[in-house]
């Protein structure tokens, strides 16, 4: 792959046996894995095109062990890569050849459920769906629902600030986490937030969520749980053009309606999905919109009627509201199977994740079509339409020479296009290694240095997950230096009172 | 006597910071100065007045975003949003009346800098949750952009989160982008009458744990109830707001009245009374009167269901009411000039959360911890974050913690 990782420290690699031994004194038994065959499952995450065996894998079970591992690695200047379930789509958990891979899967207990305060305290290795399942008996759930929710862990969700189809209305991970315990690279344990709202001092919790495992290792998370809406219904709406679909989304929002979910698919995605799932999607449309309304039945029925009327005004050629829970789930089954469906029509696919101002959708789709011709690769689009988060799926075959490279270039062009029209490189998958080298398309060196200085405040030696997010690594001492040039009275022509 | 610099654009702010660095000066950073009486008193000779950085840069109602210069008055923003039937969903409260000033004088920059949030905090989040992007000048005299102009973004660190609630100690914000949302079509409030604090916390937990989608929950004990508009009688009231489309509000009002039956007699307020009531909550009316203003006022964030236990640990002579379903407690201490920080801190240490001395004479705010004291490790981490933005202490030195 084309992404360059920090050069492996030969001195550290030379001490591998000694390091493994030291780790075994902290985590006894099978918690330290150093055989190549057994480390194989850890060599990549959800972005499988990137692979690297770690120096050693450690699977701690307690905060104390995490603290000791980090303290040791800090003292010995050994790099550490944290990992949850390894479902990152941006290579956030890609190991380093000279690094310890810190697997958090054994932190899998739910420590407390407190319905009166509407929170759950969970360990980071608990899966996203397991949180909802643990509170379902009382009619509660955890709102962020990334598509990988069966497998992905809360710790990983915190690292990536994961979203999902419902985040337009219910927010991303950052809006649904109240506290966490983190271990800094020095081994110091810090608690941020708790059962209460907002932080005392700087909102470090808000900084840690979405920091992609570069600031600290999360060992406990307090999440907000919500009561399930009384009911939910979905409307399936087909449009002859993507412009009309986009306009309909805008008009729904302009009418003051924030649906629980609002998803769009383009023609290639609709066809791939329908062939796979038979959800009853119309095949003769260019854009298909799924709008889900949730709340009391009185509200849902009222809003469905309004959405249907807006859709008609926007030129919808088909419009079908779910009449049962089974039908609602069938509507969603198609959308949720979009990625595997792409996997059926193409040997490989590469999932992108830019966000654009929604009004630019027709322009972006048109430009993407041109790029598709240029790179001679197909593309299918699924789109969190409410918040402008676009997931183009680039179809390629890794067995055909050059196709993967073309897919990567195509993807990079799409993300640059997202930034060019006023959007961003990633809406929910994270920068990781995948988009690291594209960061300068969005941020200046000064912007990136300001972010890296925060990294220095948490990890001055730069040992935690290096090589992710930032295209260029600077030493903290170098970043800390100041060049003071001032001295002249500023803008003397302005009034000073 | 302070010297005021009033830059007109980001470049001039950068110039002002460069100058301060070269001359070893520090600034008090202000918009309109509406929140000057909050926090630890300023200890600087110079003021950086950002009120000239005013005006809307981009408003796209369909995209749910608004970009403005940081010194834009909140009132101007609320008017423009209102014209488009939208709002800042975090319902920023107005500290003006509480601090003896007129209402409606703050700026968006100040609102974000103190992470203001009103009663809808429990459902919609605080300012931090709606703060999407910013252009700032750091204490290094560098202009930095962070975030974006779209509602969903995870590209790079979320600096907006640390800027929100930083009390202007990290950087001077010059442009900000916030998420805006549609205004609810209508609202109603269910009032449960005559509950004691513990019962009220239980009632609010039941309401917020139901599928009624309550957008605000407060408990107004007997001794302060008469200061709130819209209540049917001036007696202890546990108030639960419902917002949305008319058929839904009507349906949920019925549901909630039924749900509250075991707790006490409950009535529903219509839209006008409901609005009036929540305006009083927003302005913290019992403690905004001339007579109440001399008394130190605390704002405590805690676990909502345990809030009444925390209140039990504070002197019964104090006055208080609960917002955020119990998660926010306003406590007015009985005596002028006596913040009784010790008892507040002890109560918070036992139940959990954090307390801020919102109002007290400057001498008192200089001598007690205005903000929650932190564990040494966390305090050191906060200090390093401050240093990463502002190593020379150009912005608001000592505003949050002495010596930081």
Written description of the protein model:
The complex is a heterodimer of chains A (497) and B (404). Chain A is an alpha+beta fold and 497 residues long. Chain A is built from 17 helices and 19 strands. The longest helix of chain A has 18 residues, at 403-420. Chain A is globular. Chain B is α+β, with helices and mostly antiparallel strands. Chain B is 29% helix and 24% strand. Chain B has helices at residues 10-23, 74-83, 108-113, 121-124, 159-163, 197-208, 222-225, 246-260, 271-282, 307-312, 341-351, 362-367, 376-389, and strands at 3-5, 27-30, 46-49, 56-60, 65-69, 86-87, 131-138, 143-147, 171-179, 181-182, 186-193, 214-220, 237-244, 266-269, 297-301, 319-323, 328-332, 354-359. Chain B has a five-stranded antiparallel β-sheet with strand order 4-5-9-7-8. In chain B, strand 16 (319-323) and strand 17 form a beta hairpin.
Keywords:
heterodimer; A: 497 residues; eight-stranded antiparallel beta sheet; five-stranded antiparallel beta sheet; B: 404 residues; Uridine Diphospho-n-acetylenolpyruvylglucosamine Reductase, domain 3; Alpha-Beta Plaits; 3 domains; four-stranded antiparallel beta sheet; 13 helices; 29% helix; globular
